[in-house]
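not sure who needs this but someone in the group chat was asking about DUF2336 domain-containing protein from Hoeflea prorocentri so here u go. i didnt clean anything up, its just raw.
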Amino acid sequence: MIVQKFLQWSESAGARERARAANALSRAFVLSELSLEETRAAEAAMALLLDDPSPMVRQAMAEVLAASEKAPRSVIHSLAKDQIDIAGIVVCCSPLLGDQELVDLAADGRPGIQSAIAIRHDLRQAVCAALAEVAERPAVADMLDNPTARIAKVTLRRITERFGGHPEIRARLLDRSDLPGDVRHSLILKVGNALAESSFVAGIVGRGRVGRITDEACQAATLQLAGAVDGREIPALVEHLRLDGKLTPAFLMHALCIGNIEFFASAVGSIAGVDDQRVRAILVDGRRNAIQALYASSGLDAMTCEVFATATLLWRDATKQDVAPNALRITEQLIDHYMENGESGPVEELLLLVERMNLEFRRKAAKDYAMAIACEAA
């Protein structure tokens, strides 16, 4: 009877009146204690309102029902598939929409709906993964901005694959403390490529120098990353760099001289096919012959192995004197030991790198000293 009267009234009522009625009916449903008969009648009336030709009516219902756990599931599901400005209200906050329903809505392909899903509170991993796979860039950016979204590391990798070339997504990813080291390195290279291709940067430093400068910057950033990455992520980062051809003798020598022994041992073990613990044992306690044999198994020639063995023993001696080995002292000792012999070929290139490293460490030490004097003077 109630539904019949409502239908008769709605035939002559205007859109605004019907919207007010829909709002009042929805509020009564979620806020009042209705009898079973009243509940059924109200649900039936709302089901009829879903077919109202005016979006004002459906929006009036959505605004009231969206955040309620008491709302009829059938009505919520229908509103979630309505036009964007109505569906978005429900999709972004309804507790009645489960993970699978949200995944299906994300796959629907409407960017507005994808963004509404992306800003939901406590967004679960499965939904985040679905958005990373099918959503447009604005929705993915919204998800990365959502502090309550539970984004798995594999999902961050997928986002990097799809949108790592876009500066705004790249910046959001690099700001995350939970970004895996190998993904961070991939983004570092993308930043380097973007700078290398920038006409603005080329105009400042010159087209001939921009490639070398960006390569050096990427290598410095990679070394810093290798020193800062969580120990549990080192194997993944090492494997990523190995497959990318970045574990060069020059890179490894730099890691060894600055004392990043955890990363260095993992890298050598990966290249040589030796267990990390065995590599660390050789580096810390092994004789020179054992150290050289380890490096030889990594594919280095005999003379390069000798340079690495000497650097390893210098590092070992430095750790006995200081918890944090002095990279400046190690590189100076390497230069004194080898440069006077006039080595050539790959060894010469490696020693020239050591010399450049020594100059960098010397400049840093001078800068730190000057800053310390300035602080004392202040």
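also The chain is about 75% helix and 0% strand. if thats useful
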